[in-house]
Amino acid sequence: MQFVDLTVEPGPAYQSELSRTLASSEAIVREELLTWRMSRGMVLNQLSFVHGDPDVYADALAEASEIVQYEIRPVDDERFYVYLQEANAHERPSWWTAFLEHDLIHVPPVVVEDGVVRITILGAFETLGEVVDDLSEAVSVEIDSVGEYHGRGRRITDRLTTRQYRALRVATRRGYYDVPRAGSLADVAEELECTESTASDLLRRAEREIVHALVASVDD
User: Fold this and answer.
1) Where's the HTH bat-type domain (predicted)?
2) 127 and 70 assigned to the same domain
């Protein structure tokens, strides 16, 4: 069984009103689409896990004309689940059509972050190639990895708080982890709007969780 990890940049033409609003908001850090299905009435039902501001997400849901029902269940101040129903999703242009025309399986979660979508699909090698070709005709697609699928354990992001994850993103973007280092701890703290001591603590705690997860996965 083969897999391919893809990064897709849909662009505004292939985004719903809700997706466009969320993509432009810095308050929503990351969304993980856990499961979804289209009902007989052509209503899209989906469940997501989100890192970010629940009030900002709720406002976007309330203003999106395509959303007919939703519910937000908080985990803590910066993480929450979202269940929503979207009407007429089948009527707007969608790059997802490429998946419907082939025999394959999606491996959740589908991650939405920084305006791009990261997705893993399983299928025959030839089928995966055809899907990538079809997607490339409509949207920007990058192949991140491909090979034999052996399953995956607990996601590393499950181990991190939203603040820790945000700190890692900022540090990576600022070049803090480049070799040689291009960004300083002060740069990270400035963007996070916190002290250098707090930024350092967030990064060290996040790094600890990642290292522990890596060692545990090898030992297993």
Assistant:
1) 160-211
2) yes
Q: Is the pLDDT of residue 100 over 80?
A: no
96 plus 173 within the same structural domain: no
pLDDT value at residue 161? 83
pLDDT one-digit tens code per residue, 38-80: 887 778 899 999 999 999 999 999 999 889 999 999 998 889 9
Considering its fold, how many domains does the chain have in total? 2
Please report which residue ranges of the chain form alpha helices under DSSP H.
17-23, 54-63, 97-100, 125-136, 162-173, 185-192, 196-219
User: Domain range for residue 201?
Assistant: 156-219
